[in-house]
Amino acid sequence: MKLLLTILFLLLAGLRPAGKNKSTSKWVVSENSMLTVNGSTNINRFSCVILRYPKTDTVLVSKDKTDHIALSGILNLEVKNFDCNSAMMTKQLLNTLQENRFPVLKIKFLSLKEIPSESQNSFVKGDVEITLSGVLKRFEICYQINVKRGTIELIGQQAINFSDFHLIPPQKIGRIIRAKDQLVVAFFLKMERAG
Q1: What's the CA gap between 53 and 35, in Å, rounded?
Q2: What would the DSSP string read from start to end of 60-95?
Q3: Which uninterrupted H or E stretch holds 23?
Q4: pLDDT in tens, 34-68
Q5: Signal sequence span per UniProt (predicted)?
Q6: To bridge 84 with a disulfide, which of 31, 71, 90, 122 should be the other Cys (CB 3.0-4.6 Å)?
Q7: pTM above 0.70?
Q8: Does residue 99 come out as left (phi exceeding 0), alpha (psi in the -120 to 50 range) or beta?
Q9: What distances in angstroms separate CA 188 from CA 118, 152, 174, 177, one per listed residue?
Q10: Rounded to whole angstroms, how far apart are CA atoms 14 and 127?
C-alpha cells in the first residue's frame, strides 16, 4: 500500500530533483471520460450523459515547497452533447440550460486539499468552479483516485440545483411532469500523462 501511495504522490506531484521550489506535471484528459447528470421528476428518474470527451484539454498538477497542491485546468463540455435517452427530455434539458446562448459547460479545477491517506480506496477533496448558463459556482468535491500504469482516473459526484445557476427545472406536457430542482453530477475523468 505504501508503494501505491508513493507512486500516486509522484504522479500527482510530478516531483523533480530537490532544490526546485515548485514541480508540475501535465495530464491530458482522455476521450474515454464522461459526465452524467442524474435527476428526478414528480413521476420518475432521468439520466443525461455526455459519453465521450472529444477534446484534448489538459490538467496541470503542481506542488510547491509548502506542500500546497494545485490542480488546474478547464474542461469545456458542449451542452449539445447531452443525451437523456429520450428526445423530448434531451430537448427540454438543452432548452433549460440555454444551449443556444451558452453552448459550453465549464469545469475549472482549482486545488486538491491533501495527498490521499493510506487506505484501500484513495479519496481526496478538491475545489472546482462550474460555469453553467453563464453562472459560476464554486464547489468542494470528494474524488476517488485510481492510478493505473501511467493513467489517473478521477471519479466523483456533486449535488447541484438548477436554482444554483438561476435556472428553472425542465417541464414537459404543460406542467404535468416537472423535474425536481436537485441534480447529481457524476464524472469519470481518465487522464494520461503528457510527454
Answers
A1: 9
A2: EEEEETT--EEEEEEEEEEGGG-B-SSHHHHHHHHH
A3: strand 22-29
A4: 899 999 988 889 899 998 776 667 777 776 666 66
A5: 1-18
A6: 90
A7: yes
A8: alpha
A9: 22, 10, 35, 30
A10: 20
The CA distance from 107 to 189, in Å, is 12
The residue segments making up the domain with residue 75 are 2-193
Q: What is the pLDDT of residues 2-19, one digit of tens each?
A: 434 444 444 454 434 344
| Burial (Cβ within 10 Å: 0-12, 13-18, ≥19) of residue 89 | buried
The count of structural domains within the chain is 1
Q: Name residue 106's amino acid.
A: K
Q: Collapsing DSSP states into helix, strand and coil, what is residue 180? A: coil
Task: State how far the Cα of 32 lies from the Cα of 190, in Å rounded to an integer.
Answer: 7
